[in-house]
Design goal:
Helix 1 runs antiparallel to helix 4 and helix 2 runs antiparallel to helix 3. This protein has one domain: Up-down Bundle (Four Helix Bundle (Hemerythrin (Met), subunit A)). 83% of the residues lie in helices and 0% in strands. The protein is elongated and about 55 Å long. It starts with a helix and ends with a helix. It has four helices and no strands. By secondary structure, it is mainly alpha-helical. The structure holds protoporphyrin IX containing FE. Protoporphyrin IX containing FE binds next to helix 1, helix 2, helix 3 and helix 4.
């Protein structure tokens, strides 16, 4: 039982690190993609990088984070639902998933050469997953309430 719980925790940590890597890198690609002329060779290269990052890394990593997180809740049992830190954490994780959804939507805009948002917009967006991650990790490790 303990082995299973520790494996789930290890795979949970591996999954959210991979998800976070994509959430921090994709908006940064958008910042530099904004500088490229639509149809240019550089813009077409960014499209390939963005598509592969989202589909091959971020989507599977997000699903794995949720699956192993869910398994960990199962191990904690029904009392998990009385834990304030988990409620707050899951609310922030939903916000993280919403950002993931918007990044996927904006990728389609770049792929269709119809991005209207500025470099500054994506620089600001780049900070949001970082702030969410800091709060989520503090809640999950310190369990302050
Ligand atoms: C739906 C998504 C998620 C669920 C259901 C979930 C649930 C959990 C649960 C139940 C634990 C175990 C707590 C314990 O036994 O001590 C845990 C640990 C943890 N989670 Fe999540 N989590 C999710 C997403 C995330 C995300 C997105 C991050 C980071 C950005 C994250 C970071 C952590 C950390 C740092 C730990 C502590 C690991 C350790 O002490 O070994 N989780 N999570």
């Amino acid at each position: 039982m303990m082995d299973g719980y520790l494996w789930a925790r290890a795979l949970h940590v591996i999954s959210f690190i991979s998800w976070m890597a994509g959430l921090l890198y994709l908006p940064r690609l958008y910042v530099y993609h904004c500088r490229q002329a639509p149809g240019s060779e550089a813009s077409e290269t960014f499209k390939v990088m963005e598509r592969r990052l989202l589909r091959a890394i971020m989507n599977p990593a997000m699903i794995a984070t949720f699956v192993f997180g869910g398994i960990l809740i199962w191990y904690l049992g029904s009392e998990a639902w009385t834990m304030g830190w988990l409620h707050a954490k899951l609310a922030l994780v939903v916000a993280m998933a919403v950002i993931h959804g918007y990044l996927a939507k904006w990728r389609k805009d770049f792929a269709a050469d119809r991005n209207q948002r500025s470099e500054t917009f994506y620089r600001v967006i780049n900070e949001v997953p970082t702030i969410l991650m800091i709060a989520i990790v503090i809640l999950a490790v310190l369990k302050p309430f």
